[in-house]
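Subject: complex prediction, re-run

Hi both,

The earlier run crashed halfway through, so I resubmitted it with identical inputs.
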Amino acid sequence: MSEARYKGSPLPIPQQYPLSEEELTARTKALQALLIEKGFLSSDMIERVVSIYEKDIGPLLGARVVARAWVDPEFKKRLLADATKACAELGIGGMQGEHMVCLENTPKVRHVVCCTLCSCYPWPVLGLPPNWYKYPQYRSRLVANPRQTLREDFGLSIPDDVEVHVWDSSAEIRYFVLPQRPSGTEKLTEEDLAKLVTRDSMIGVGDPLPPSSLS
Amino acid sequence: MNEEVGNAPSELTVRARIAAMLPRKSGELVFEAPWEREVFGMAIALCEKGVISFDELRWRVVAAISAWERANRGQEDKFRFYAFWLDSLERLLLERGVLKDSELKVGRRENQSD
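This time it finished cleanly. Structure:
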């Protein structure tokens, strides 16, 4: 309840987790039984909440940001100047002290983002980082040889006359990419445009989907 | 009252933010086992009731994943996203005084001997 007070410093984070399904199941059941017994929750409530999320298959929030930037030049300016602020305009927010930077792809420059820790990832915009993003191999390969990594790992060939910039996210700055708007999308609504924006295109390892993918 | 009252995001905004961070395949939420689904449901229901705040939980999950990865290099196949939720949720509820450690321990024993 809201009157429950903070009891002191956070408990230490364990380095090991129970790996057996039995133990995880037992812990889950125990916690659930206690919370129900104490009147915090009911089984119905848990089921209802999960079903809301299971049915919510909307696009990632970042796709909304990108689509808005594609249709609204003034928003795009604000986004490139201060991504955290611009995202807040759309009700998309991070935690205090988190600074997001949006990098614009152009016909001459492409951006790719990597990071050594999974926490340095713009969660509010992109959601949970994909597994490969967190592997040290991805980062080291990408930094050492971005064109080859993009071609071999992601099937993305970058022409020689296009520069590739690799950005390493830190705890202070989390980057995401504003991909180029695909051609043939001039008549699409902002809502449809958002459906073309993939997670990978906002990390910089992919392109947005073609408009033909909508039909 | 907690410290977040006054600038609390709307329910819809919070839901959209949570939805964006969950593992999905082709847009569908992915739960690999029934306990994962229950852990997620409990955590979110407690957030929506105001027992805990989602940001508090999220920061614990993020920190726990980072700590685990530093300690378990090369073990990525053992990564269980919702195990971090379960552990972080338990710790948060203990820290908040919602549950007692002794109660959790008794409950785990009872459920394991089933």
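The longest helix of chain B spans residues 54-71.

- K.
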